[in-house]
């Protein structure tokens, strides 16, 4: 959503006219009311070029007439000629620096040129001279926010609202600022006040939808965004709705909405990119590649599309091509990805170069943690990467009490919601004889999923308390407020299994077992195995593994850097689990 800026030159001029016409100064040669009347008539009729001509002639005769300078500055501002506008507003200010409107006009000119710090000083001067103009507090707040002085910006928006309780834009911008600073509850309250003052405003409705999405209330987010679209078919609103559907796991709906976004705006680069991501999740990698390339054709420096092509080629094991696109992207974990691709592709010089670079930074990458452990064990060297050097210690098995009994009503409710809820499948190359859901299951609206999310967060808190005296980056930098980065169900049929992998974008991972088939051949079928090898890492020594037997309601928590797999089972019964990743800190 876009912050609203008010350039109120006409309003300020109205105040200045009254001041100027009553100004008495025998030492200055100033124009009379009849002198300036043609100038004001031309300005008010929007004959701006004529007004400029009259104003310049007057200024030659009356060089100290600050009011004429302000009119000329306003003319140029309305014509979009910012440099000329700034010149005349600065001249007016130099003539009369103690007039608040001169300070404010100069502030607005600088604001329009995106010189926010300098603009702030003049708004502050204006407010010291005259504290009751809500629009000045408002524009001061805009500049403060642009300068990342968020607390001061919030105070200025609130002052503008205090002076003008029906000030829609002030509510709107304050709501966006609260959202940006993750004060979601107050953002929602503020935007609801904005829509009460100005009902049926599509921008405010769309912003409400965005905040509801951040909170995780997808139904409310969808409702508000659809209301905005009924009022205004804006491609940004359509894009937001597509993202809301995607986060609910409704990939086909998201696909259609991203396509409609592109129809509305063929230069909407993010829509091409996100459509590519959805197509990738639907298993249509070739078409996904085309959309990432279309995004790059619109903007060759669009980092997300380069990164996504890197992921696409990485997953296809075209590792040299993947490296090329990660190098172009320079976002997220691009260095880690290059290190990973070089390691798998037997490019030792590039691998060591990237690993040595990453060793100089904070050791907070699960991906590099897994590579470092694999390399050090195979080469019998000390593991210098301190993300989680001894990951087996941090595997914890606990249980959700209300899911332990086979006839548990909560368990039945969960399974029922999993079966009836419309969630798309996400293609998963490592999964054999099974399906995996898309979206973020534990952030959906169904009460069973919300309840389960709360129970899991309690167990994560207990988990962290159990390791509070341990020293590694995984524990030391553990997220202060754990959030589900992703969560999904996995349903497996007979002979189903999952090959060894890590969750490189997570921090802590977990899996909860809500339906387990009977063992028919071996005691270990269907169990989870942890280790240091997988994902076609270079062959080497036989590395340690640890298997954990499972019971109904068991919750297994472990560092996201740790390889794990599911052993095949041979019963005709379905196996159901819910897996998740906790987001890394910040």
Q: Could you please describe the fold and organization of this structure?
A:
The chain has 586 residues and is of the alpha+beta class. Among the domains are: 9-164, Tetratricopeptide repeat domain (Serine Threonine Protein Phosphatase 5, Tetratricopeptide repeat, Alpha Horseshoe), CATH 1.25.40.10; 393-582, q2cbj1_9rhob like domain (Jelly Rolls, Sandwich), CATH 2.60.120.620. It contains 25 helices and 9 strands. It has helices at 9-21, 33-44, 48-61, 66-78, 82-95, 100-112, 116-129, 134-146, 150-163, 168-180, 184-197, 202-215, 218-231, 235-247, 251-264, 269-281, 285-298, 303-315, 319-329, 334-344, 348-360, 366-379, 409-420, 447-466, 473-476, and strands at 396-399, 431-436, 484-501, 508-515, 528-531, 545-548, 554-559, 563-566, 575-582. Strands 1, 2, 3, 4, 5, 6, 7, 8 and 9 form a 9-stranded antiparallel β-sheet that branches. The radius of gyration is 31 Å and the shape is elongated. The two termini are 22 Å apart. The mean pLDDT is 93.
